[in-house]
Amino acid sequence: MVMSDTSPDLDSLMLLTLVAELGSLGQAAERMRISQPAASKRLSMLERRLGLPLAERGTRGSVLTVEGKAVCHWAERVLAEARNLTAGAAALRAERAHDLRLASSMTLAESFLPAWVAELQRQSPGLQLSLKVTNSEQVAALAARHEITIGFFEGPTVPPGLSSRTVATDRLVIVVARTHPWARRRRPVELTELADTPLIVREQGSGTRETLARVFATAGLRPVEPLMVLEVNAAVRRAAAAGIGPAVLSAATVEDDLSLGHLVEINLVGADLHRRLRAVWPKAHPLPQVAEDLLRIARHSR
């Protein structure tokens, strides 16, 4: 069996999960409203692309192989993320008055908010909302100017005039490329050493940078000038993975890079990098029920 470099399409992954659920390629084809020959061809193509036998077909139905069960588990995660992407994109392209106007920091928009929004839309079909993605400082400013219904940010302090509620917890991690000297060290990095090291950081106003700055200030440390300042988490991750230097990011944003070995987490002593992620809104404006529903979903997702 020859493996192709072409990534599997979502419909083929959906077919595999349905075969696992229903135990029948024919029933899976019926569920997807395609013919059984078309479903068989699609499953065979998926096996060729991955270079793995995924299902054993028989007169009594189809059963996933050991490899098929593993791929099915990963496929379910991919499909869930695709649904989150669709929900997030729908919010981003909205440009008119809506039932719910949101703003979110980059970290929350990347790793938390899509799943919350997808569940809210599942519970409230027909809900119209808009989403602006920016840094934590701007999220707070938009809330203060009453330009949004509710915002989500990771800043360590809540500006005056805003109500807030903790919706999740997070921690910052130090990450480096596998080729970086820190990746081979056995002892953790001291906070003083981190302060003396030029880092790849987010821009001023981001909650990640503000949280790290507050950690240094609390310890009476003044960090050296950054090695590089970038405005999006993905760019920081890529720069760190390329070996340019260490970076400090949310653990949620680098989870995949760590599991794939693109980045290595470095232990830190001398500071606690855990933080709270908050929702904020103007004190003078009570939250509408739909916003309360979103907060409930967020808290139950922790």
From TrEMBL:
<comment type="similarity">
    <text>Belongs to the LysR transcriptional regulatory family.</text>
</comment>
<dbReference type="Pfam" id="PF03466">
    <property type="entry name" value="LysR_substrate"/>
</dbReference>
<protein>
    <submittedName>
        <fullName>DNA-binding transcriptional LysR family regulator</fullName>
    </submittedName>
</protein>
<dbReference type="InterPro" id="IPR000847">
    <property type="entry name" value="LysR_HTH_N"/>
</dbReference>
<dbReference type="Pfam" id="PF00126">
    <property type="entry name" value="HTH_1"/>
</dbReference>
<dbReference type="InterPro" id="IPR036388">
    <property type="entry name" value="WH-like_DNA-bd_sf"/>
</dbReference>
<keyword id="KW-0805">Transcription regulation</keyword>
<dbReference type="InterPro" id="IPR036390">
    <property type="entry name" value="WH_DNA-bd_sf"/>
</dbReference>
<keyword id="KW-0804">Transcription</keyword>
<dbReference type="GO" id="GO:0003700">
    <property type="term" value="F:DNA-binding transcription factor activity"/>
</dbReference>
<dbReference type="InterPro" id="IPR005119">
    <property type="entry name" value="LysR_subst-bd"/>
</dbReference>
<dbReference type="GO" id="GO:0000976">
    <property type="term" value="F:transcription cis-regulatory region binding"/>
</dbReference>
<keyword id="KW-0238">DNA-binding</keyword>
<feature type="domain" description="HTH lysR-type">
    <location>
        <begin position="8"/>
        <end position="65"/>
    </location>
</feature>
